[in-house]
Design a protein that fits this description.
The chain has 227 residues and is α/β, with parallel strands linked by helices. It has 7 helices and 7 strands; from the N terminus they run H-H-E-H-E-H-E-E-H-E-E-E-H-H. It folds into 2 domains: 52 residues; 163 residues, Rossmann fold. Bound molecules: S-adenosylmethionine (SAM).
Length: 227
């Protein structure tokens, strides 16, 4: 074989190797970009989804002052506590530190997993529990202290649900937005950190003019059609 032919053969081989490694690199880059997009979609969807519902209840964490106001409002209380829409678990964890057996119900699985991790890290995992659940599909009958940081559009429906489920001994604390028909026994804090405290005994005896009290499942149907 002539020197020229040998050179041409080697050059051809190296071009083939180069083009193979380039196409492999292309595959790796496509895989990485595709994988990152899928991961981003999986993480972002639960945070964006509430904005697409009819009643938008987004993740807005309670401020430190708000958490303090909640705990002060329940200072003389003990037993079970639930935070409806528990976000990153800050109210549940703070309540557990104050001796409550505290639970959170939250639609966003990432926030629930993060809350469980935080509770474990802060050493209160034995007195806390976090559930990936739709608030309209569970009963809060077993809780004697209820906390809700909701939005005005959902408060009238939640009133009916809690009226039918909670025992007369329960207390309810609403953060930032009050319930429309109940009369609070106490209001604490100011501005966005305001909390309204309600006594179940008084709101259970309150009659809604023209409103029909609904069971949990009926409430769930109504709420679903609204969300
Ligand atoms: C305003 S944030 C309050 C978070 C937390 N309670 C706090 O004060 O820091 C409302 C939370 O409710 C959750 N959420 C929205 N719709 C829900 C539903 N149908 N069931 C359960 N949680 C829901 C949102 O993901 C969000 O984390």
């Amino acid at each position: 074989m002539s020197e020229e032919a040998l050179f041409t053969g080697r050059a051809g081989q190296s071009v083939a190797i180069e083009s193979r490694s380039r196409s492999r690199l292309g595959l790796v880059v496509t895989g990485l970009v595709g994988g990152s997009l899928v991961a981003l979609y999986a993480v972002a969807t639960p945070f964006v989804a509430p904005a697409l519902r009819k009643i938008c209840l987004p993740f807005v964490p309670a401020t430190t002052a708000q958490v303090e106001n909640v705990l002060n409002a329940l200072r003389a209380r003990s037993g079970t506590l639930v935070d409806i829409g528990s976000g990153d678990g800050r109210i549940v964890i703070a309540a557990a530190r104050h001796g409550f057996l505290a639970s959170g119900f939250e639609l966003n699985p990432w926030l629930v997993w993060y809350s469980r991790y935080k509770a474990w890290r802060e050493g209160v995992h034995r007195s806390t529990s976090f559930h990936i659940s739709d608030l309209w599909k569970v009963s809060f009958a077993q809780y004697s202290n209820v906390v809700i940081f909701g939005v005005p559009q959902m408060m009238d429906k939640l009133e009916l649900k809690l009226e039918s489920e909670l025992p007369s001994s329960a207390k309810v604390v609403a953060c930032r937005f009050p319930f429309p028909n109940w009369v609070p026994e106490h209001i604490a804090g100011e501005g966005v950190d305001t909390v309204w405290v309600y006594n179940a005994e008084s709101f259970k005896s309150l009659q809604h003019c023209g409103a029909v009290k609904k069971t949990t499942s009926e409430n769930a149907d109504t709420a679903e059609s609204n969300l």
